[in-house]
Amino acid sequence: MAIRCLNEAHGLEFAAYHGDCVDIISQMPDAFIDFSVYSPPFGSLFVYSESAADMGNSTDEEFAQHYAYLVKEKFRVTKPGRLTAVHCSDLPMTKWKDGVVGIKDFSGDIIRIHEEAGWILHSRRTIWKCPVTEMTRTKHVGLLYKQLQKDSAKSRGGMPDYLLTFVKPGENASPISHRPEEFSVSQWQEWASPVWMTVNQSNVLNVKLAREGSDERHLCPLQLDVIDRAIILWSNPGDTVLSPFMGIGSEGHVALKLKRKFVGTELKESYWRQACRTLDGQDRQTDLLSIGAPA
């Protein structure tokens, strides 16, 4: 599969492309992907790179417009009857930026954009996060104990993460089956819960290796627990898994570990290079010449 991009690296079971995800995925053939899992840029909450093609460098309206192009291409390249999983959270509104204090329904925007592209909402998992940790990190007035004492009208609960899954209409030609010895009843009961209470928030890849001095905020990789559950539930061994926002390679790391193939795209060069190293650590078949010297 010939892809025009800034750079690329290939292993026996993966391909990692450096460039704009919409441009790269638009070059992929129809019905090529079995499953996709990723966390999109959260609008202007995080600044990942200085590129004009970075969806994080946009207003809410611009992000929705640009993200819609990706969702349509993702629909085209996904096989009928197969799924995509999107990790997200809703976004806090601040007085200095939005004029009011509240919450933006970012998860609702993602659902709307997918449904407009032809996807069907399949399920939603709420991922529990510790409100004390959020309070320590954000210092949000709504989570402070002293605010409860002062005026609880301004108190709010913590912000969970969500894993939204969507299915492409059509018959799944390759059913995803699980034998009892591979997937116990107790495991299914936990994973079938609408609230995942046991995701380890600190089980992530090391982001320090890819961070640059110009990064305004640290990269927040998707928890490996979430990726692991998603890939096991919604793909078969040997399937091809896609991540349009590959980052430092979390989704690819888990996909290869679980004996899937992986295709990823990443716009930021330092993240792409670290992802290549991550994937090579799993695959050991990388064409190192295509990666080049470390950044």
What does this structure look like?
The chain has 295 residues and is an alpha/beta fold. 33% of the residues lie in helices and 20% in strands. The protein has eleven helices and eleven strands. The protein has helices at residues 21-25, 60-77, 95-98, 106-116, 131-138, 145-150, 185-191, 224-234, 250-257, 269-283, 288-291, and strands at 7-10, 14-18, 33-38, 78-89, 91-93, 102-104, 120-127, 161-167, 195-196, 240-243, 261-266. Helix 2 crosses helix 4 (106-116), helix 8 crosses helix 9 (250-257) and helix 9 runs parallel beside helix 10. The two termini are 26 Å apart. 37% of the residues are buried.
| Class based on secondary structure composition and strand pairing | alpha/beta
Distance between the termini: 26 Å
| Oligomeric category | single chain
Largest sheet: 9 strands, mixed
Q: Calculate Rg over CA atoms.
A: 19 Å
Percent range for β-strand residues: 15-25%
What pattern of helices and strands is seen along the backbone? Answer: EEHEHEEHEHEHHEHEHEHEHH
Query: What share of residues is helical?
Result: 25-40%
The residue-averaged pLDDT reads: 86
Give me the number of helical elements. Answer: 11
- Which residues sit in consecutive blocks of at least 5 with pLDDT less than 50? 45-49, 214-218, 285-295
